[in-house]
Amino acid sequence: MNCPTPNEGTVDRVVRVVLAVLSLLAGIYWLSGWAQLVAYVLAIILAFTAATGFCALYKLFKWDTRKKK
């Protein structure tokens, strides 16, 4: 199985983690119903992409936020 090539830089990944935590907290404390479900799904997606360093939308648009050597 081929692993996708990372296309997120460090700052991008940190921002995704912060947004994932904020989305999770919003879902727990402030939202209800469908909005809560959307917040949870968004938090999971953001956390997963931050952990893997790969974003499918970045690949689709051929973006790469990593530092070039």
Describe the structure.
This protein has 69 residues and is mainly α. The chain has helices spanning 10-29, 34-52, 56-60. α1 runs antiparallel to α2 (34-52). It is elongated, with a radius of gyration of 14 Å. The protein starts with 9 loop residues before the first helix and ends in a 9-residue tail after the last helix. The mean pLDDT is 94.
- Straight-line N-to-C gap: 27 Å
Question: What's the gyration radius in Å?
Answer: 14 Å
**Given the helix and strand composition, which structural class is it?**
mainly alpha
Average pLDDT metric: 94
What's the helix count?
Answer: 3
- The share of residues in helices is 55-70%
% residues in beta strands: under 5%
The protein's oligomeric status is: single chain
- Low-confidence parts: none
- Return the string of H and E elements: HHH
Summarize the main sheet: none
Q: How many β-strands, per DSSP?
A: 0
Q: State the shape.
A: elongated
What's a concise summary of this model?
Helices cover 64% and strands 0% of the residues. It is mainly α.
Fill in the keyword field for this structure.
mainly alpha, 69 residues, 0% strand, 64% helix
SSE blueprint and pairings:
Layout (H helix, E strand, L loop, with lengths): L9 H20 L4 H19 L3 H5 L9
Helix pairs in contact: 1-2
